[in-house]
């Protein structure tokens, strides 16, 4: 028996595209609960389930969040905006109710644990949403102004907004395609890491990347240039260079 190389789940994953324009149709309670329920089935470090999600439907609140992040029409337009939180508050309260002080919350391992749990759960949620005919886009800009987000959502100590997700019924007029990724040989290493694998892979990808954006009406778009702007000067962090202070404010000293 040969190993299966394709499945409906894999096919769904390969159809993924970011959606930033939505039809004026709601995401129902049953859909939302099914999506978050699927997220709960994601793997979790030590089963600590160190995450929560805030579903924001109120138009005024979405507008305020959008403005705090620099202005994103897809947050304002989406029928629901999900804010995914690293959440150690629940576990901290549980421990303290048992007379145990959660000493590990001050270490960076626990910060990473919460962020990793969020990433795994949120990706599960988006895949579930897409299987229901919905679409969405992750919003890393939720970290542009952590203090404003925490105040708007009433976040307690030991919670931190890791990523947002605008979710709704895709507007077919948007026309966004499936963005190419790096060739597999650039990311799949066998036995040991190949420090030279990036060279041919990025050259090949640059050609595919430019070709894709030409179909989207953006000729001469360069992945290398985009990556350089994002990871080169500190301005590419869009204000997130103060993240450690923001984490401390929310009870994540990350020592």
Question: Would you mind describing this structure in some detail?
Answer:
The structure is a single chain. By secondary structure, this protein is an alpha+beta fold. The mean pLDDT is 95. It is built from ten helices and four strands. The chain has helices spanning 8-14, 29-40, 59-68, 73-77, 89-97, 108-131, 146-153, 197-215, 223-231, 243-249; strands at residues 51-56, 80-87, 135-139, 159-168. Helix content is 43%, strand content 11%. The protein has a domain at 15-175 and 238-249: NADH Oxidase (3-Layer(aba) Sandwich), CATH 3.40.109.10. Helix 2 (29-40) crosses helix 6 (108-131).
Quick take:
The chain is an alpha+beta fold. 43% of the residues lie in helices and 11% in strands.
Largest sheet report: 4 strands, antiparallel
Oligomer: single chain
Give the CATH H-level superfamily of the domain at 15-175 and 238-249: NADH Oxidase
**C-alpha end-to-end distance:** 50 Å
Helix-strand pattern:
HHEHHEHHEHEHHH
- Which strand order do you get reading across the main beta sheet? 1-2-4-3
Structural class: alpha+beta
What is Rg?
Answer: 20 Å
Principal-axis shape: globular
Beta fraction: 5-15%
Give the strand tally.
4
Name given to the CATH architecture of the domain at 15-175 and 238-249: 3-Layer(aba) Sandwich
Q: Give average pLDDT, whole number.
A: 95
The percentage helix is: 40-55%
Question: Count of helices?
Answer: 10
- CATH classification class of the domain at 15-175 and 238-249: Alpha Beta
């Amino acid at each position: 028996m040969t190993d299966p190389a394709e499945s409906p789940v894999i096919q769904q994953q390969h159809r993924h595209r970011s959606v930033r324009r939505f039809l004026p149709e709601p995401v129902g309670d049953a859909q939302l609960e099914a999506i978050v329920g699927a997220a709960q089935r994601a793997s979790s470090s030590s089963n600590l389930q160190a995450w929560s999600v805030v579903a924001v439907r109120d138009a005024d609140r979405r507008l305020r969040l959008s403005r705090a992040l620099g202005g994103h029409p897809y947050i304002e337009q989406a029928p629901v905006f999900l804010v995914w939180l690293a959440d150690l508050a629940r576990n901290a309260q549980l421990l303290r109710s048992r007379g145990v002080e959660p000493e590990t919350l001050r270490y960076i391992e626990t910060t990473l644990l919460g962020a990793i749990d969020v990433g795994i759960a949120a990706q599960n949620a988006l895949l579930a949403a897409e299987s229901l005919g919905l679409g969405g886009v992750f919003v890393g800009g939720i970290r542009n102004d952590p203090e404003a987000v925490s105040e708007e959502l009433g976040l307690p100590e030991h919670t931190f907004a890791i990523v947002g997700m605008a979710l709704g019924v895709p507007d077919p007029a948007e026309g966004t395609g499936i963005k190419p990724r790096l060739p597999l040989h650039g990311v799949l290493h066998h036995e040991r890491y190949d420090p030279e694998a990036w060279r041919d892979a990025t050259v090949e990808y640059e050609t595919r990347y430019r070709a894709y954006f030409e179909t989207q009406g953006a000729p001469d778009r360069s992945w290398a240039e985009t990556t350089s702007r994002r990871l080169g000067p500190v301005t590419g962090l869009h204000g997130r260079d103060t993240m450690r202070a923001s984490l401390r404010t929310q009870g994540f000293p990350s020592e």
